[in-house]
Amino acid sequence: MITLFIISFLWFMHTLSKNFMIDPDFHRFLSNKDQALSNPTLWILMIRIHIILALIALLTGPIGLIKRLRVKSPFLHRWNGRIYFYSILLNFIPGMYAAFFASGGIFSTIGFIVLDTLWLVTTMLGVTWIKKKDIQRHSTWMIRSFFLTFANMTIYLIVAATHHGLHLPYGTSYTIAVWTCWVINLGLAEIVIRKKAL
């Protein structure tokens, strides 16, 4: 849990500073686009909403996984969970909008649609199971959801390795990252789930 908190906080600070302080107009990111956006103002608005909601999920996610908090303060756990759920639910539309303008073209777009859908579905399943009082399945699906919250970080690392390390074209690297991020993150989630079950 400490490790998850540290990773979440560091990635929160990295994303916040990069997108709202260092390059608030997304000049560097837009320079890597395959084609010019027809409405860059709307894209920037939607991507900002997308990032803010994702950062909220990134902060509330690890709090929801603290067993001591769940036991000693179920009220706080429920409200934290609601914030986490709605940050992902409300992020579906801006996430889908951004997907249609993803670097790498149609293959990246499809990859992001799959990712956004998995993120929402795993979260909704987590909520569904807790409403049925099934804590075990609720925990399992929320772990999967939370690991998908780290998809952006995984994309960043894969792009760095394939584009800067292997010198693949940026669009190709981005497409690879979009498709492999949710596979890797869900795989890591399953490892954690199996370890918890032992």
Given helix and strand content, the structural type is mainly alpha
Radius of gyration: 17 Å
Count of the domains: 1
- Give the ordered list of helices and strands: HHHHHHHHHH
Quaternary structure classification: single chain
The residue ranges in which pLDDT falls below 50 over 5 or more consecutive positions are none
The separation of the N and C termini measures 17 Å
For the residues shown, what is the average pLDDT? Answer: 89
Which outline best applies?
A: globular
Written account of the structure:
It is built from 10 helices and no strands. The chain has 198 residues and is an all-alpha fold. The chain has one domain. α6 (92-99) runs antiparallel to α7 (106-131) and α9 (151-165) packs across α10 (170-197). The radius of gyration is 17 Å and the shape is globular.
